[in-house]
Each structure stands twice: as structure tokens, then as C-alpha cells.
Specification:
5 helices; alpha/beta
């Protein structure tokens, strides 16, 4: 998977971050929206985004929501509700703002294969099962996500995708 070393993910595209330093670069703790707020905003976006001088929206709760559902239900919900919210955000802001999903500590739960397929490892009671995260969210996109690296860190801080379709 390609690496992303610059800060474009803080201003454009869609990101899933799990590193606290990355989160601190993107927003202040009080600026984070709940997943519910995101889903309720579909089609009714405010022009002023709360983070990074109006260039980003950071959302928490995706990881917990995925864990509450069975793998089949989680995959369906991710592909329907969450993807609709992402597409609506992208369309409204015409790719000139960042939608960042804050998923603290979840780096170990996102598995990237040698073919750049991205899977989500389910939590209890469905531990060991996976969701085809990449196929559901960016499907047949011509470009795969990039791993976000912050500074000299050797550990990925998240994933970035310029635009999903």
C-alpha cells in the first residue's frame, strides 16, 4: 500500500484514523461529531465545518457501531447508511473538505492484505470474523487508499482515500 506523508488528509478526502497524534492534528476534542450527527446531516450540511479552520469534519463512533452489529448487518449498514453519508459529504463539499473517522486504538483491527484489500476485524462476540471494508466502501475505485504516517513514525496512523464512488 502506498504511504501518505503529507497533510492532505486533514483538508480533503476521507480518512479513517486511529492514532491520537493524528487526531490532535485534525481537530480539538470538543470539535468531534458523533456518528449520529453525521448521519442526521446527510443532505443538510452546514457550510462551516468545525475543524481545521473549516476544512474538516471529524466523526467518532463508527468502530463502536460496527461492533454492535452482526458482521452481515454491519456490512449492509456500512454499505448503505455510512457510504451514503460519505458520498453526500463529498458531493456537497466537492472534494474540498476532509471527512475523518476517528477510531481510537483500531489500527490493529484494520488489516491490509498484499493486494491492498482492507478488512475490518470484528470484535466480540463476532471476534475473528471480518468485514470487507474496502469492497463495501470504495468497491471498484481505481485507486486504493494510502496509509497515513505522521512525522517519523513507523506505525500507520490511518487510511486516506481521495474520493470514493
Amino acid at each position: 500500500m502506498k504511504q501518505l506523508l503529507d497533510t492532505v488528509w486533514q483538508r480533503q478526502g476521507i480518512s479513517w484514523i486511529w492514532d491520537e497524534n493524528a487526531r490532535n492534528l485534525a481537530c480539538k476534542a470538543g470539535e468531534i461529531w458523533s456518528l449520529r450527527q453525521l448521519l442526521l446531516s446527510v443532505g443538510k450540511w452546514k457550510e462551516d465545518l468545525p475543524s481545521n479552520d473549516g476544512n474538516a469534519l471529524v466523526v467518532a463512533g463508527l468502530d463502536g457501531s460496527l461492533d454492535l452489529l452482526s458482521p452481515v448487518d454491519a456490512e449492509n449498514w456500512l454499505g448503505d447508511e455510512v457510504k451514503e453519508a460519505i458520498l453526500s459529504f463529498q458531493s456537497h463539499f466537492q472534494g474540498e473538505a476532509a471527512l475523518i473517522f476517528w477510531m481510537p486504538g483500531c489500527g490493529r483491527r484494520v488489516k491490509v492484505s498484499a493486494t491492498d484489500a482492507v478488512n475490518w476485524v470484528c470484535g466480540a462476540p463476532h471476534g475473528g470474523r471480518t468485514l470487507d471494508f474496502g469492497r463495501v466502501l470504495w468497491g471498484e475505485a481505481r485507486e486504493y487508499p494510502k496509509e497515513i504516517f505522521i512525522g517519523d513514525s513507523k506505525t500507520s496512523a490511518g487510511l486516506y482515500h481521495r474520493r470514493i464512488s
